[in-house]
Amino acid sequence: MRVVLSIAGSDSGGGAGIQADIKSALYHEVFMTTAITAVTAQNTKGVQDICVLEPDFVKIQILSVLNDFEVNTIKIGMLGSKNLVLKVKEVIKNLNIPIILDPVAISRAGSKLITDEAIESLKELFDYSYLITPNKYEAKLFFNVSSIEDIKNLKTQNSNILFKNMVESKNKTVDILLKKDGLIIEFESLKANEANTHGTGCSYSASIASLIARDFCLEDAIKISKEYIYQAIKNAPNLGFGNGPINHILK
């Protein structure tokens, strides 16, 4: 069985973060290990409080996993402080493991999720990442792109970048992959009812990481994961009174 390490926060509501990553990995028959960066008090209605863990303790968690498991892929999610970002960088910079970086900085609704210092330091992880998966707000923040034309004019990067939901309409959504060699590939899917989308970003990147761990090529991993997320939203269980979780297991 292939192994993924998720470095991310915990969601007490079970729909996003580490919990979503584990469920996504389980669906793709991958074993997921974890290094928790923050513990949140949250539900479908919002986040009530966050406790960011000490960077040194996060580093110990990461090393504990790496010293015992043969990790095939690393997925990085929410890193709540500049010091934490830099501590994670210390560990990953010399690893020969594909890293899927979900640069959690701005929510799907456009709300800032971490400090300006942490946002700026996140850029230091880009060159060590195999794939970066910004949403449309993060695409503007980190790469100054807001359209397909902007992506076409973007200078070649050291990492592959998947710009999520760059084109949206009532019936479809399109993600744009900019590969390191400059090739641009579009991934289109139907748009599901958006009443239950909590944790879709975490689940999407975790799904891609799981498939990369199983030796799928990047394009196939994205295509399969995008369809997986669509079906998981479409078959969401309507839990909670707010933006509910998706159905990770699809049963």
What does this structure look like?
This protein is an alpha/beta fold and 251 residues long. Helix content is 34%, strand content 24%. It has eight helices and nine strands. It has helices at residues 17-27, 55-66, 82-92, 116-122, 136-143, 148-152, 200-213, 218-234; strands at 3-11, 31-43, 46-52, 73-76, 99-101, 131-132, 160-168, 172-178, 184-190. Strands 3-2-1-4-5-6-7-8-9 form a nine-stranded mixed beta sheet. Helix 1 packs across helix 7 (200-213), helix 3 (82-92) packs parallel to helix 4 (116-122) and helix 7 (200-213) packs antiparallel against helix 8 (218-234). It is globular and about 45 Å long. It starts with a strand and ends in a 17-residue tail after the last helix. The mean pLDDT is 93. This is hydroxymethylpyrimidine kinase. Pathway: Cofactor biosynthesis; thiamine diphosphate biosynthesis. Residues 11-247 form the Pyridoxamine kinase/Phosphomethylpyrimidine kinase domain.
Descriptive tags:
34% helix, alpha/beta, 24% strand, 251 residues, nine-stranded mixed sheet, 8 helices
Give the beta-strand count: 9
> Which radius of gyration do the C-alpha atoms yield?
17 Å
Low-confidence stretches: none
The assigned structural class equals alpha/beta
Ends apart, CA distance between termini: 22 Å
**Mass-distribution shape:** globular
Biggest sheet details: 9 strands, mixed
In summary, what is this structure?
Helices cover 34% and strands 24% of the residues. The protein is built from eight helices and nine strands. It has a nine-stranded mixed β-sheet.
